[in-house]
Each structure stands twice: as structure tokens, then as C-alpha cells.
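@channel sequence for tomorrow's demo:
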Amino acid sequence: MFKIKTRSDGFIERYKAQLVAHGFTQLSSLDYAKTCSPVIKPSTIWLILTIRLSQGWYVKQLYVSNVFLHGDLQEQIYLAQPSCFKGSSHHDHVCHLHKALYGLKQAPHAWYLRFSTYIQQMGFKRYPYDQFLFYQTQE
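C-alpha cells (generated this afternoon):
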């Protein structure tokens, strides 16, 4: 994907390129096993905010920019070269992906596995009724 970022006065600020996998060509029997959407339940948010207000808890939220690009892939995934690639001498080569890209069915799950492993090593526990909520108790 190519984008041209412009300022409010219409002048070009920068050119931007992003490699995105076209996930619609993946085969379910070969390329991915399940779909993951790492989003906390709205009812969990209301519960935590209610408890926080009544108990005076300290609550933190984490936002990760370009989150899906930080996932390590478990499967072997190959990506055809973009159609605009000019390397005519290597037109039949493919890219072997080690990290997730936007557009892959595996990207959300790959990121979540990496994140949940890391945060649990830091002493956080997974809430049993919402797998995307982690908590830590301090005495």
C-alpha cells in the first residue's frame, strides 16, 4: 500500500509505504487454524471501572502502536512479491515471513501469544473470565 501524507495546506509531507498481506488468498486447511480478536469485553471494562471507583484502585491501560507487526509467526508462511516489485531477474522468488504482517489471519494471535507470555513472566495473571484482561496484586 502506498499513501501520500499531506499537510492541511495541501503540500506533501511524506510518502508512506506499507507491506500488507492479502489474507483472502489463504486456505483454511493450510494457512491458519483459528481467528483471534484480542479485544477486552465491554462488560469487563465496566466491571473494572466500577471496582476501581469503589475501591480506589490504580488502573493502567496499554496502547501499542503497530501492534500486529510485533508477533512472531509459529507457522511457515510465504508471501508472493508485490506486483509493483521491479526485480525482474528474481520475479519467481517469495518472501518467508518470520514476523506477522497486517492482513494475515495469524497476526492477532501471534501478537497475543507474545504479549501474554511476556506479561505473565512479569507477574501478571490472566483473568479467568476474559482472556484479554491481565491483573497484578500488590500487598
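heads up for whoever presents: Residues 107-121 form the longest helix (15 residues).
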